[in-house]
Design brief:
This protein has 252 residues and is α/β, with parallel strands linked by helices. The chain has a single domain, classed as Bira Bifunctional Protein, Domain 2 (BirA Bifunctional Protein, domain 2, 2-Layer Sandwich), CATH 3.30.930.10. Helix content is 31%, strand content 27%. It contains 6 helices and 12 strands. The protein has helices at 14-43, 49-52, 91-96, 133-150, 220-224, 230-245, and strands at 2-11, 66-71, 75-78, 100-103, 110-113, 117-123, 155-156, 164-166, 175-185, 188-196, 216-217, 247-251. The strands form 2 sheets. Strands 1, 2, 6, 7, 8, 9, 10, 11 and 12 form a 9-stranded mixed β-sheet that branches. Strand 9 and strand 10 form a beta hairpin. The longest helix has 30 residues, at 14-43. 35% of the residues are buried.
Length: 252
C-alpha cells in the first residue's frame, strides 16, 4: 500500500502553510523529473552511460505523498478562476476583522478559512494512485460524506459544483459544509478541502462563497446543535482518506 506522510500543523498562518505546500509539491515534481530523465537514459538505444554506470538500475526513487491538516487565522483566498468582486470587504475592513486576503493558484472562486475549520491539503503524486483528477475530487468529497454519516448527517454532492452539501436539491434549504479547490501539475496535487467543523460562520457573510449567491453555508456544530471535538473529526476524516485511497497515513 502507498504510504502518506501525515503533518498536523495546528493553527498556522495561511502563507506559511502555502509555502510549505509549495516546498513539498516542488520536491515531488523534481523527483518525478529526475526519474523520467533516468528512464530515458535506460531506455534509449545506443547510450552507453547505463552500461558504464550500473547505479542507473537503482536510480528510480518512489515519490513521497503527504497529507496536511491545519486551521488558519481568518483569511479569504481567491482561486485562479475567481472574481475579486466576490470579496465584499475593502482593505480597511479586512484589517478591522483581523482577516487577510490572498490570490492563489488553485481552481475555484473565493472561500474563507478560519479557526474551527478543518483544512486538509493532500500533496499526492497521483501516479502512485490513479491518474484521474475527477476521481480524486470525488474521493475528497466522499471522505467528508462518510465522516458526516458518522455524525448522523447525510452529506451529498451538488451537480456542477465541487464540495459537500446538505439537502442540495431542496430549494431554500441547500447549504454547503465543505469547500474543495485543488491544483494539479504532472499529476501532483496541492490545496484541498475546507470542512466547517465549528468556525465563525459570520465571516462567510463577507464574500460570495465560491461565487454562489443563493445557497447557505453551515457547519458540523451548527447542524448537530452541540460542541464537536476537532481531534475526533480529524481522526474520522483521516481514516476515511486511508480507506478510499487504499493507503497508510503515517505520522511524521
Amino acid at each position: 500500500m502507498n504510504k502518506v506522510l501525515f503533518h498536523d500543523l495546528g493553527l498556522i498562518d495561511y502563507k506559511e502553510a502555502w509555502d510549505f505546500q509549495e516546498k513539498l509539491f516542488n520536491e515531488i515534481v523534481e523527483e518525478k523529473i529526475a526519474n523520467r530523465k533516468a528512464a530515458l537514459v535506460t531506455l534509449t538505444p545506443g547510450l552507453t552511460e547505463q552500461n558504464e554506470n550500473p547505479s542507473h538500475s537503482n536510480s528510480f526513487n518512489k515519490t513521497k505523498n503527504h497529507l496536511l491538516f491545519c486551521e488558519h487565522p481568518h483569511v479569504y483566498t481567491l482561486g485562479k478562476s475567481g472574481d475579486e468582486d466576490h470579496l465584499l470587504l475593502n482593505e480597511q475592513q479586512l484589517k478591522d476583522k483581523s482577516a487577510s486576503f490572498y490570490k492563489i493558484n488553485r481552481g475555484g472562486d473565493i472561500t474563507y478559512h478560519g479557526p474551527g475549520q478543518l483544512v486538509g491539503y493532500p500533496i499526492l503524486d497521483l501516479d502512485n494512485f490513479f491518474t484521474d483528477i475527477h476521481k480524486y475530487l470525488r474521493f475528497l468529497e466522499e471522505a467528508i460524506i462518510r465522516t458526516l454519516a458518522e455524525y448522523g448527517l447525510k452529506g451529498d454532492r451538488y451537480p456542477g459544483f465541487t464540495g459537500v452539501w446538505l439537502e442540495p436539491t431542496i430549494a431554500l434549504r441547500a447549504r454547503k459544509i465543505c469547500a474543495i479547490g485543488v491544483r494539479s501539475s504532472r499529476w501532483v496535487t496541492m490545496h484541498g478541502f475546507a470542512f466547517n467543523v465549528h468556525p465563525d460562520l459570520a465571516y462567510f457573510g463577507n464574500i460570495v462563497p465560491c461565487g454562489i449567491t443563493d445557497k447557505a453555508v453551515t457547519s458540523l456544530e451548527k447542524e448537530l446543535g452541540q460542541k464537536v471535538d476537532m481531534d475526533q473529526v480529524k481522526e474520522k476524516v483521516r481514516k476515511h482518506f486511508e480507506d478510499l485511497f487504499e493507503c497508510i497515513v503515517e505520522e511524521i
